């Protein structure tokens, strides 16, 4: 800090402040890498973000023939995560991604927990009939699924979606 000849106090950015900021950003990048590596280990996602710049992880399903990124986003809300899914701009609308921005308060533990919750969601979705195709008559484990079981699963999903929609109306996100 120094005083200008007109008695104006001028603050200079010290090396310590810059080093603190650098430490925060390095930590955010490390946590983004933990998340990215955890998603890669599932074998189910393509990572579409770069490792440089803003600490974020954008990813998409390798196979979205049965379920899509919007379903993953929706199911993650039950665990308290808000992971937006959206389509890319014109000329790339066929690409849908999920995006996690790593903030200062997003710890390594949070990154590991998010991967675990995403794996739970994938397991739940694998047990449900495909949203995009006709009724699946075979469970992922190979068992035959009756029409009655499919109808029951669809009803449970429908009730759950209504509950989530009602919750969204009463609890806003800042």
UniProtKB/TrEMBL annotation:
InterPro entries attached to this UniProt entry: Glutamate_decarboxylase, PyrdxlP-dep_Trfase
Bilayer-crossing regions: none
GO cellular component terms, A-Z: cytosol
Gene Ontology terms describing biological process: L-glutamate catabolic process
GO MF annotation: an example: pyridoxal phosphate binding
Superkingdom classification of source: Eukaryota
Alphabetized PANTHER family for the sequence: GLUTAMATE DECARBOXYLASE
Family: Belongs to the group II decarboxylase family.
Protein name: Glutamate decarboxylase
Organism of origin: Aegilops tauschii subsp. strangulata
